[in-house]
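Hi R.,

Here's the chain you asked about this morning:
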Amino acid sequence: MDYEWKNETFMLKHLQCVISAAEEIALKGIPSQAPFALTAIWRTKGQASILDTECFDAFVWSDMAFVQLFIDAARRNDKPPISRPSRSLIWLIKALFDYSAQGIVTFEKTRSEITYGAQTDKAGSFSGESLSPFLQGNTFLHPRIPDVDYSKIVDPSGIDLLKPERRLDGALVSAKTLGSYISISQ
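And the predicted structure, written out as tokens:
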């Protein structure tokens, strides 16, 4: 009851308590975890906008595994400013505390009040580097859908609507163009 949830300095000092609470929730939730989020992966050849031969796959995250992403990222946050993953864990623990104390969750209010002066979008955005400890299976190392099957992933007519300045979009535009060139020249 005495937590100063909106006070970044206070919460940095108590971040380990928040992380410990989230860890306990994740561990106790393992027996009842459920599918939560789908992550699509795609690969290009290095930084080039050319699809890799082993290109596409998807992974399902359970709710407890997804929480673990935030826990691991929050562990690396020990100085100001509070990171997005740490702030997200604070939101989760505050919302669960409110529910246990008052029987109601006002997550939108929690999210809008606890910002620590930063943007609150992209709270669940993780780079490939932070995901890699979790995605070490064979299907991550060798995605199951090859580059030549890109049209099974994205409708070719939709590729024209993509923004080629993004790496995947550019690779799909290149693959479609190259595919058209090959079929014309044959």
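The chain has ten helices and three strands.

Let me know if you need anything else.
M.
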